[in-house]
Design goal:
Helix content: 25-40%
Largest sheet: 7 strands, mixed, barrel
CATH topology of the largest domain: Dna Ligase, domain 1
CATH architecture of the largest domain: 2-Layer Sandwich
Number of strands: 21
Low-confidence stretches: none
Strand content: 15-25%
Structural class: alpha+beta
Radius of gyration: 23 Å
Number of helices: 17
């Protein structure tokens, strides 16, 4: 257990890949951004190393009592460094933390993350009485309850979505402030009605217990189906006993106020083409988890909107790009939050890119003096080892069923399935599958990591979400905002369960073999065989 300031970022096996990069950024941010000390920062925190996972696992999947004691001691030290107190609103906003899992290898979206740990009814009431903004306090509490339910109590997000629908609310992040109390009550009832065999039911009000429950929940997510499938899909496969580190980090709030706070994801290069152009998806007054999880779509704004609306933040991000790329010697994927006009880098990782994008961006970085030919060649050769299928150039005999925005350049074939459940049933029978997502919200689940799920298409989606990033990592074709070529809606949204529109041309091809082509952005049907080839042999 070690604070960011004293950890050795070279110890990736102990700190995890995410933790090691956070430590490096935290320790060097003042050096790298000495001219912007008041304008850019990395929130402070501490790391429970991968040794904690082994202690937890060997103790019957429980944190030993002495480990809990050390966690609370580290939390007290974090209180001293931040000037805020866990469970104490004397400064209007208490110390609230995020708890993230982070293995020594990157597995985007596969390990649990819980935000807003340190809130309960009493704290919320006191924050409101102290004059804190009502939307900020209540929306943060809503998010805390939901994520606790998902990660700690294993309640599927679908249940929370059904609550939202029954209350007549819109997309996450756009709820009327007067409805937030109703949502808190409904979410609390949902947690009460779905007890967990270890953590029982309900949202934990005892704050030290809440923190330890969350840490155990994130540790448990290492052996959950999504993480296990992600490990098996990696080449070479990631062993189960590698374990995960745990990052406990002070929260900053992109939902703090209306005009000075926001959250977003920043790709320093275009992940599909490699062009030296920023790809930014962001939204005002929101927490970053809703972007990376794909739970909001309509509100997402792009780089040009940030440049126009927050030119100072945009320029700081571009400066961060220049200095972080020069340090990392490669393109980056960064999550960020702005609270009261101060930019916080929450995490960064190597940007997952298509092979063509990798080649272009690495040679550009050589030309820009940010890396050298040896490093660029190593990264390009590593990308070349990743199997990636494309359609044969001579293949033209096909019928286009739908078009979408491609995230990857790859292509593949499989039986078209509507919904994750049907797709996984086919995969378990040994079939290759193309999955049309059923739900009108982001799903980061076992499907994107499953080797038999050969491609994913969805009627919604975003570029920077975990599922899109994972699709690039596994070279799977992935289309977002897909529309049928006959202009019929693909999915009929109902209060019950989304269903496939029988009038759509695509409906007649469910259960048949289809292909997805990322280069053209199409879903198609053909009776031809042997239509794919490995990109490296083209």
């Amino acid at each position: 257990m070690v604070p960011f300031a004293h950890a050795d970022p070279a110890q990736v096996g102990k700190l995890g890949a995410k933790g090691a990069k956070l430590v490096e950024d935290f320790q060097h941010v003042r050096e790298v951004f000495s001219d912007l000390q008041d304008g850019i920062a990395v929130p402070d925190g501490f790391i429970l190393t991968t040794d904690i996972w082994r202690q937890y696992h060997e103790n019957g999947d429980r944190l030993p009592a002495e480990v809990v004691t050390h966690i609370l001691e580290e939390l007290q030290a974090l209180e001293e460094r931040t000037g805020r107190r866990f469970g104490d609103v004397s400064g209007r906003v208490p110390l609230v933390v995020a708890v993230r899992g982070g293995a020594p290898v990157s597995l985007p979206g596969a390990i649990g993350t819980v935000l807003n740990v340190g809130l309960n009814d009493d704290i919320v009431d006191k924050m409101l009485a102290a004059g804190e903004d009502r939307r900020f306090v209540l929306s943060t509490y809503v998010n805390a309850i939901r994520i606790y339910g998902e990660v700690v109590l294993d309640i599927p997000y679908q249940y929370f979505y059904e609550v939202i629908q029954k209350l007549g609310l819109g997309e996450e992040g756009s709820y009327p402030v007067e409805k937030l109390n109703d949502l808190i009550v409904a979410y609390r009832s949902l947690l009460d009605a779905n007890p967990h065999p270890r953590f029982h039911g309900g949202f934990e009000m005892d704050l030290p217990r809440q923190l330890t429950n969350v840490i155990e929940g994130v540790l448990a997510s290492w052996m959950a189906p999504t993480a296990m499938e992600a490990r098996r899909s990696r080449q070479p496969k990631v062993p189960d006993d590698m374990g995960t580190a745990i990052i406990v980090q002070s929260m900053v709030f992109g939902n703090r106020d209306e005009y000075n706070s926001l959250s977003g994801v920043f790709f320093t290069r275009n992940q599909r083409t490699g062009a030296n152009e920023p790809v930014i998806e962001w939204a005002p007054r929101i927490q970053c988890d809703k972007i990376v999880s794909g739970k909001i779509r309509k509100q997402l704004r792009q780089a040009a909107d940030l440049e126009n609306g927050f030119p100072d933040i945009y320029q700081r991000l571009l400066l961060a790009k220049e200095r972080f790329e020069a340090r990392a010697k490669r393109p980056l994927d960064m999550e960020f939050t702005v609270e009261h006009r101060k930019l916080y880098i929450l995490q960064r990782r190597p940007l997952r890119m298509t092979f063509n994008a990798t080649v272009r961006s690495m040679w550009d970085l050589v030309d820009e003096g940010k890396t050298n030919i040896q490093i660029a060649s190593l990264i390009i050769n590593t990308a070349l080892e990743q199997p990636e299928k494309v359609l044969r150039d001579a293949f033209t005999d096909y019928q286009v069923l739908a078009r979408g925005e491609p995230i990857t350049d790859s292509a593949d074939t499989g039986i078209l399935a509507f919904g994750t459940e049907d797709a996984l049933d086919l995969a378990r029978e040994g079939h290759d599958v193309i999955l049309l997502r059923r739900r009108p919200y982001g799903e980061t689940d076992v499907a994107v990591n499953h080797p038999r799920i050969r491609g994913i298409i969805r009627c919604d989606g975003n570029t920077t979400g975990h599922e899109a990033v994972s699709a690039v990592a596994y070279s799977k074709p992935y289309l977002i905002n897909v529309r049928s070529v006959d202009d019929e809606p693909l999915i009929i949204w109902t209060d019950e369960d989304p269903r496939l529109n029988p009038a759509s041309q695509l409906a007649g091809f469910v259960g048949k073999s289809v292909f997805v082509d990322g280069e053209r952005g199409i879903l198609g049907f053909t009776e031809a065989t042997d239509i794919l080839e490995d990109r490296k042999f083209r």
